[in-house]
Amino acid sequence: MYNNITFVNEDGIGILTINRPKVLNALNQATMLEIEQVLTDIKADDTLKALIITGAGEKSFVAGADIAEMSSLSAIEGRAWAQLSQAVFAKIENLPLPVIGAINGFALGGGCELAMACDIRIAAVNAKFAQPEVSLGITAGFGGTQRLPRLVGKGRAKEMLFTGAMIDAAEAYRIGLVNEVVEAEQLMEAAHKMVAKITKNAPLAVRLTKDAVNTGIELDLTSAIAYEAEVFGLCFATEDQKEGMAAFLGKRNAEFKAK
Ligand code: DAK
Fold first, then answer.
1. What integer best gives the mean pLDDT of the chain?
2. Which residue from 162, 156, 187, 158 is spatially nearest to 55, judged by alpha carbons?
């Protein structure tokens, strides 16, 4: 069905793999459109509890936007390409599911930006991160100038964005770009473990928490805190809140229904 990605639903956990290993999973427009399509399907599929995004092969998560395809774009086409990709990455960021990036190698340029659109990043020890766009005569265009400083702070972000230098997984962990670093063979297992730690909780509460974090971080603190109160209040309209608290008081495990 897809030529540049694969998608499987493994017992409610979606695994989206960027699948162009010959070019280290570089993102061309066809790939981006396929990602957009699969995200529409994922959003509509209420059997899915979480999504893991990774790259095919052992060497690369995504080595960036496809430089060969990008090299001949006009200014108008370049803007359209950035707008398409920004919309796709925003769709990932706003999916009503936890999204884990399993970073299995190079995460460069658009690949680092794709990783940053995920909620949580787990890196294999061989992962490498960079925003090398300035070495190609362009700026980061898929959200990197905005999501990187929000994740690691302005100073570190500017260093990465100005120098284009690659950092390894340990450094990415140190600066807060990734949540965890694991042996390459254990990457998918670690991603599944993270998913399990999240999905044992009330799904609607997790979804509302994601919304509160994503929405609130763009607001001033007073408005963000007010938004949090609205989200918190909404939880009391769910069956899961009643079940979660009854289970605690009854000293038993909760059985959440996402209702
Ligand atoms: N695009 C196209 N092909 C790529 C690629 C890429 N990003 N990265 C690797 N490849 C291809 C190589 O050309 C090579 O193809 P063949 O020569 O075999 O045909 C194949 O993948 C294997 O790569 P290498 O032979 O180079 O493998 P090495 O292990 O020697 O090196 C590397 C791995 C990841 C260090 C190296 O491939 C590399 O430096 N790749 C480029 C990384 C890079 O600069 N990525 C950032 C891309 S820029 C915007 C829109 C978009 C963006 C910005 C703005 N606007 C419209 C405003 C986003 C930009 C980017 O993502």
1. 97
2. 187
